């Protein structure tokens, strides 16, 4: 399977949503907070399984800019200064397809750590 290619990437600053449309007709709306807590950077993921760092206090994060990375991804700069995560188009597609599951897992990890996120 070849990596999906976006046909459109839009930042919606008021709603803090990154909208991504792919050539297969799929369209995802990814909240900035969701993207920030699932950053593919080593700062968030760690350097191996079990080294993930739970991200706290990212509810109001915004994206200041997005830089293209080659022909395979983007690198957003978040309002908290984080700018080292390269989101490949394949990873963005995966985040969109698994958004509900991943968000539920994040909320569960927050609650387990004693930092429940109220809606």
Mind explaining what this structure looks like?
The protein has helices at 32-37, 42-45, 89-97, 99-112, and strands at 6-12, 17-22, 27-31, 63-69, 73-78, 87-88. It has 119 residues and is of the alpha+beta class. It has a single domain (6-112), classed as NE0471 N-terminal domain-like. Strand 5 and strand 6 (87-88) form a beta hairpin. The N and C termini lie far apart (37 Å).
Features:
3-stranded antiparallel sheet, 119 residues, alpha+beta, globular, NE0471 N-terminal domain-like
In short:
With 119 residues, the protein is an alpha+beta fold. It has four helices and six strands; from the N terminus they run βββααβββαα. The strands form two sheets. Strands 1-2-3 form a three-stranded antiparallel β-sheet. A three-stranded antiparallel β-sheet has the order 4-5-6.
User: How many separate domains make up the residues?
Assistant: 1
**Could you say which structural class the secondary elements and strand pairing correspond to?**
alpha+beta
* SSE topology string: EEEHHEEEHH
Mean model confidence by pLDDT: 92
Strand percentage, roughly?
25-35%
Q: Report helical residue fraction.
A: 25-40%
Tell me the overall shape: globular
The tally of beta strands, per DSSP, is 6
- Through-space gap between termini: 37 Å
What does the largest sheet look like? 3 strands, antiparallel
C-alpha Rg, in Å? 14 Å
The CATH architecture classification is: 2-Layer Sandwich
Low-confidence stretches: none
Provide the CATH topology: NE0471 N-terminal domain-like
The number of helices is 4
CATH class: Alpha Beta
Strand order of the largest sheet: 1-2-3
